[in-house]
């Protein structure tokens, strides 16, 4: 979680099965989020019992343009890109 701090870099972390994955508060500024794997947040049992819209892999509430995202892997997000970076091999 990044609150109201400025100039932070969050990189090369693995975040799996937490109630919230990466959370960037509205006051965060000049933040870089890069090279993280953030998948399965919240764990499926929590998501089924508490369908909270903030229970995502990356929740970015910082002002537009204040956070840079590079090469992250995630499944769900709000205000952050979750590019598909893996495709299954074709059936043979």
What is this entry, summarized?
With 92 residues, the chain is mainly β.
Number of strands: 9
What share of residues is helical?
under 10%
Note the run of SSEs as H and E: EEEEEHEEEE
Mean pLDDT: 81
Q: Give start-end ranges of low-pLDDT stretches.
A: none
Radius of gyration from the CA trace? Answer: 14 Å
Separation of the first and last Cα atoms: 43 Å
Please identify the structural class as seen in this structure: mainly beta
| Major beta-sheet overview | 3 strands, parallel
Physical arrangement of strands within the biggest beta sheet: 1-4-7
Architecture overview:
By secondary structure, the chain is mainly β. The mean pLDDT is 81. It is globular, with a radius of gyration of 14 Å. It has one domain. The protein is 7% helix and 29% strand.
What's the topology here?
Elements: E1 9-11, E2 14-16, E3 22-24, E4 31-34, E5 37-39, H1 44-49, E6 58-60, E7 67-70, E8 73-74, E9 77-78
Parallel strand pairs: 1-4, 2-5, 3-6, 4-7, 5-8, 6-9
Task: Provide key terms for this protein.
92 residues; mainly beta; 3-stranded parallel beta sheet
């Amino acid at each position: 979680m990044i609150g109201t701090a400025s100039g932070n870099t969050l990189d090369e972390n693995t975040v799996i099965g937490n109630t919230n994955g990466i959370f960037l508060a509205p006051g965060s500024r000049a933040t870089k989020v890069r090279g993280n794997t953030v998948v399965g947040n919240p764990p499926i049992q929590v998501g089924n019992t508490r369908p909270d819209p903030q229970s995502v892999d990356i929740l970015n509430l910082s002002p537009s343009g204040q956070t840079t995202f590079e090469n992250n892997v995630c499944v769900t997000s709000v205000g952050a890109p979750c590019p598909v970076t893996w495709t299954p091999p074709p059936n043979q």
